[in-house]
């Protein structure tokens, strides 16, 4: 699956990681799918940046990287 999705903004709460895409779509995935994010502090979660031409997200303090494409494909596979 080749998906070209670029991130615009990241949000989160106690249940979900939310990524707003440049094209207006919003991806919601359970934060429990990402152990490193689930156990991170609020300050660490807020310290993110987009990488790879906005197709990935990095949390430098956590040394954690997440591909937006992988969020979309994981969401599809877990829903099936």
Per-chain topology:
Layout: E1 7-12, E2 16-21, E3 26-30, H1 35-38, H2 42-46, E4 49-51, E5 56-59, E6 64-67, H3 68-79
Antiparallel strand pairs: 1-2, 2-3, 4-5, 5-6
Question: Can you offer a commentary on this structure?
Answer:
- It is a single chain.
- The protein contains 3 helices and 6 strands.
- By secondary structure, the protein is α+β, with helices and mostly antiparallel strands.
- The chain has a single domain, classed as NE0471 N-terminal domain-like (2-Layer Sandwich), CATH 3.30.2020.40.
- Strands 1-2-3 form a 3-stranded antiparallel beta sheet, covered by helices on one side. Strands 4-5-6 form a 3-stranded antiparallel beta sheet.
Brief summary:
The protein is an alpha+beta fold and 80 residues long. Helix content is 26%, strand content 35%.
CATH superfamily heading: Uncharacterised protein PF10387, DUF2442
> Low-confidence segments, ≥5 residues, pLDDT <50?
none
Q: What structural category arises from helix and sheet content?
A: alpha+beta
- Helical percent range? 25-40%
Q: Please provide the ordered H/E string of secondary-structure elements.
A: EEEHHEEEH
Q: Count the helices. How many? A: 3
Let me know the largest β-sheet.
3 strands, antiparallel
Domains counted in the coordinates: how many? 1
Shape annotation: globular
Q: Count the strands?
A: 6
* Ends distance: 15 Å
CATH class category name: Alpha Beta
In the CATH hierarchy, the architecture is: 2-Layer Sandwich
Estimate the mean pLDDT confidence: 90
Order of strands in the sheet with the most strands? 1-2-3
Radius of gyration: 12 Å
Report strand %: 35-45%
Which fold name corresponds to the CATH topology? NE0471 N-terminal domain-like
